[in-house]
Structure formats: C-alpha cells, structure tokens
Design brief:
α1 (6-27) crosses α2 (36-67), α1 packs parallel to α3 (72-112) and α2 runs antiparallel to α3. This protein starts with 5 loop residues before the first helix and ends with a helix. It has helices spanning 6-27, 36-67, 72-112. The chain contains 3 helices and no strands. It has one domain (6-25, 33-112). The chain is 84% helix and 0% strand. By secondary structure, the protein is mostly helical.
Length: 113
C-alpha cells in the first residue's frame, strides 16, 4: 500500500512512537543514570502505551471506512505504517533485547555461585 501523504504520515508515525518513549523516560528519570537495563525497561513500559495507540488507530481507521471521513486515507495510512513498523520492527527488536537481558542475568547468577 502506498500512502498518498507520505511526509505527513511519516512525521505522525515517528511522533506516535517517540512521544510514549520520551514520556516514560522522563517519568523514570533516565537522566540521572543511563544504562542498558533502564533503556529496555523504558521500552517495555512504553510498549503498553504503543499497544493502546495501535488499538485506537485501528478503531479510527475502521470507523473512517464506515463513515467515510474527510481524512480517511491519512488515518488508514497512519494505521498501516504504525502497525507495520510496530509488528515487524519494534516487537522483534524489543524481544531480542529482553532475551539478551535474560541471558545476561542468568550468566551473572551462574558466575556468582
């Protein structure tokens, strides 16, 4: 699917991904001390917000197709791009990061014994 307003869709999708991460990092005070574990924790916490945003966008695009809103193509393009990036890029990378942390904790526990 090729989106008609690709510039607008790109800016909105990047904003929809960055805003929850920035809010979560501000609340967890990452400025005081930054490390890999805090970064993955922030991404895990913001995943909940990303899921809610994804559901809202899906509902908006579904509602837009039923009622034929003025910006129907824009909303559908945002939903398509947001879900594609979220499912095929964000979730696999976050899963790999969580597996790395799990393995690192297990290796550290075995080394302490």
């Amino acid at each position: 699917m090729i989106v008609s307003n690709i510039e607008t869709v790109t800016v909105l999708v990047v904003g929809l991904f960055l805003i929850p991460i920035l809010i979560t990092s501000y609340k967890s005070k990452i400025i005081n001390g930054f490390n890999f574990f805090k970064l993955v924790g922030i991404l895990n916490k913001s995943l909940i917000i990303h899921g809610i945003i994804g559901l809202v966008i899906i509902l908006l695009s579904w509602f837009g197709t039923i009622t034929s809103l003025k910006y129907e193509n824009l909303i559908i393009g945002i939903a398509y791009t947001y879900l594609t990036i979220g499912i095929f890029m964000y979730l696999p990378i976050l899963s790999i990061l969580n597996i790395i942390i799990l393995l690192k904790k297990n290796i550290y526990k075995k080394a302490r014994k």
